[in-house]
Design goal:
336 residues; alpha/beta; Quinone Oxidoreductase, Chain A, domain 1; 2 domains; 7-stranded mixed β-sheet; 6-stranded parallel β-sheet
Length: 336
Amino acid sequence: MKSIGYTQNGPIDGAGALSQFDLDRPTLGARDILVAVRGISVNPVDVKLREARAPEGDHGILGYDAAGTVVEIGSEVKGYEVGDEVFYAGDVTRDGTNSEFHAVDERIVGKKPASLDFVESAGLPLTSITAWEMLFDSFRLAEGGGEGHSLLVIGGAGGVGSILIQLAKTLTNLTVIATASRPETEDWVRKMGADHVVNHRGDLAEKVKDLGLTPTYVAALTATDQHWPAIIDLIAPRGHISLIDDPAYLDISPAKPKALTISWEFMFTRSMFATDDITAQRDLLNRVSQMIDAGTLQSTVTERAETLTVDTLTEAHKRQASGRVIGKQVLPGLSS
């Protein structure tokens, strides 16, 4: 099968960057399904891993979003049959989705939205899982909860922020404040449903306070180390900060006087450790799929390539590394 991967970690224009390989089809585990990949997306994790993690063996295959068709099932698979259309975000400990065929544990796979094609559907899984887990696992909100409280989403125009705003507005009663720093990103987060928009450049704490709101929850999605003093300043006592980026160092001692909770959200945890609740990802993806088809959630895709080649994937990695992507980037799969 055709695959696109890297042979040496480092910059996108360095030796060992993305190239095409011919590999054997994956061998299925008992709970695995084999998917003919017809749509993928690119996320910050692809860039981070390609730059920092050396491949295991001769190559590393990235890609942690996919939509496609089931072509084979493992001996203990119960939820899927050959021909089913699915979408999912995969497992960071296994080869990724930048291949014609991809093996994935059925328990982290959802049914693809019927109203979207494969390429558009591939823009949803990783960010939807991250946002859902942040709201309901990290913040421990209940659906319909949050009345009288507010959520600050720092970096609201990115992939996670775009779906997090929508889920918070659709499934909770939180007031949502999103940050954006350009006219086009301000327009985007309003389109996603943010109640208030503030610019994260300058005095973020003062801008949030000017709204007359004291957020109980802060989703720190980008540049957390830069915004950390402001977050500590603006958040309510006994509030909760959940972050997804990788700051080199955070001094959490200023959080003590407010008795704050600080947690990381990492959507690969369930698949990495085969947790007892691993099927929660399947269930939430099915909910997201149903909400897309019902029109209560909208696609967050803004950039769509016509083909998946080494060149188009390289360009997508460069765009992702720029930090200026609004919403999600998607490409056809190698099985398309």
